[in-house]
Amino acid sequence: MSFLPYFVAAWLFLAGLYGIITSRNFVHLIICLAVLQSSTYVLLLSIGYKWGGVPPVFAGAAVGTPAVDPVVQALMLTDIVVEATVVALLLSLAVQLHKHTRTLNPDDLEALEG
Amino acid sequence: MNRGVRMVLFAASGVMLFGILLWGLRGLPPLGHYHGPYGDVLNSVAVYERHATDVVSAVNFDYRGFDTLGEEFILFISVIGCTLLLRRQKGEGQGEGGSKDEDESSDRRAPSPSDATKVITIGLVGPLIVFGLYIVSHGQLTPGGGFQGGVILATAPLLVYLGGDFKTFQKIISHTLVELAEAGGALAYVAIGFAGYVIGQAFLKNVVPLGETGNITSSGTIILISLATGLEVAGGFVLLLHAFLEQTLETLGGQK
After folding, report:
1. What is the pLDDT along chain B (256 residues), one digit of tens a residue?
2. Does B53 sit within 8 Å of A58, measured CB to CB?
3. Nearest alpha-carbon partner for B144 in B208, B60, B204
C-alpha cells in the first residue's frame, strides 16, 4: 500500500511514453507528453507526504505542527504553470505544421522539406 | 519505421524500463514517512525568518527564488515563442479566402451566445478579477501566490470572449498593455533580485522590512515577487489566449 503512489508514478510515465510512441496525431502526442510529465508530480508529492501532516501553511496551525514537505509542493506549482505554457508552445508548433503539410500524423512526415 | 516493429521494440524496452523504475523507486522511504531534513527545517524556521505563513510561497519566492526566476523565464520564452509562431504571416488573414462577405455568410458564422451565457459570464468577470487579485496578494499568508492568481486573472478576458465575441475580447485587452505587463513582471522580478546588490547583499536577498506576521504587507520581498509573478503570468496567458483565438478564427475564415 505504501508503495502504491510510486507504482502509479511509474505507470503514468510508461502510459505517457506508450502514447507518444504509438501516436498518430501531434495534438494527442503533446497531451501524452503532459501525462508523462504528470508522473513526476505524483512521485514528488508522494515523497514529501507525511501521515497526519498538515499543509505547510501556518496561518491556522501553530508552527511546529507536523506538516508535509513544502519544497516539493513549491516545485509542483511552478511546474504546472510552466508546463501549460510549454504545451501551448508545442501546440503552436503543431498548428504551423498543419498549415505547411496539411497533416498532423507523425508517420506522414517522412522526408524533410525545405 | 514499421508500426509492428516499433511496438515490439517498445514492449521489450518498456517492460525493462518499468522494472528498473520500480526497482529504483523501491529504495525510497515508504509513503507518509518523509524524514526531511529540508522540508522540516523550512516548516519550523520560515515563519520566524520570513514572516510568511505560507511556507510554499516562502520557498518559491525566497529560499529558492533563483530557481523560480529561471522557471519564470521558461514561461516567458514559451509565451514569446508561441506568439512568434502564431503571428500573422504573409498570405494569411485578410487576403486568404476570408473576404468580408464570405465571412458573414450565415452557415459559417458562429452562433451568438445565448442570453443566459452572456449574463453568467459577464457577471462572473468582476468577482473573478477580485478573486484573482486576492489570491495574488495573499500568497504569503494562505495558499496562493503569483502563479495561481495570475492564471485566474487571465481567465477573465476569456470569459468575455465566451460571453461576447472575439472583437469584444480584442477591445478589452490592449495588446501593448498586456505585453508590457508580461515583460514588466519579468523585469520587476529581476529588479527585486538586484535590490540585494544595491545594499551590498546577495542577489534576491530579502531586503525589504518583513512587517508583522499575518499582515498583508508582511514577508518583505516575497509578496513583491509574488505580485510581479502574478503580473507576468496573467499577461503571458492572455497573450497565449489571444494568439490561439486569433489563429483559430483565421483558420476558420480561411478554410472552406
Report:
1. 688 898 999 999 999 999 999 999 988 888 888 877 888 899 888 888 888 899 999 999 999 999 999 999 999 999 999 999 988 776 665 444 444 444 555 555 667 788 898 899 989 999 999 999 999 999 889 898 899 999 999 999 889 888 887 888 888 888 888 999 999 999 999 999 998 888 888 888 888 888 888 888 888 899 999 999 999 999 999 999 999 888 887 766 554 3
2. yes
3. B60
DSSP chain B: --HHHHHHHHHHHHHHHHHHHHHHHTTSPPTTB---SHHHHHHHHHHHHH--SBHHHHIIIIITHHHHHHHHHHHHHHHHHHHHHTS--TT-TTTTT--HHHHT-TTTSPPPPPHHHHHHHHHHHHHHHHHHHHHHHTTTTSS--HHHHHHHHHHHHHHHHHHS-HHHHHHHS-HHHHHHHHHHHHHHHHHHHHHHHHTT--TT---S----TTSTT-STHHHHHHHHHHHHHHHHHHHHHHHHHHHHHHHHHH--
> Interior CA angle at B2 toward A111 and B7, to 5°?
130
Please provide the distance, in angstroms rounded to a whole number, between the alpha carbons at the two ends of chain A.
54
ipTM of this complex: 0.87
- Return the ∠ at Cα B111 (arms to B107 and B114), rounded to 5°: 160
- Taking an 8 Å cut-off on Cβ atoms, the answer to whether A6 and B71 are in contact is no
All 3 cell numbers of residue A76? Answer: 509542483
Grid cell of B104 as nine digits: 458573414
Contact call for B247 and A85, based on CB within 8 A: no
In this complex, which of A58, A73, A95 lies closest to B47 when CB atoms are compared? A58
- Only one residue has cell 488573414, namely B93
Q: Is A24 on the interface with B (CB under 8 A)?
A: no
Residue A18 has its nearest CB partner, among B14, B78, B82, at B14
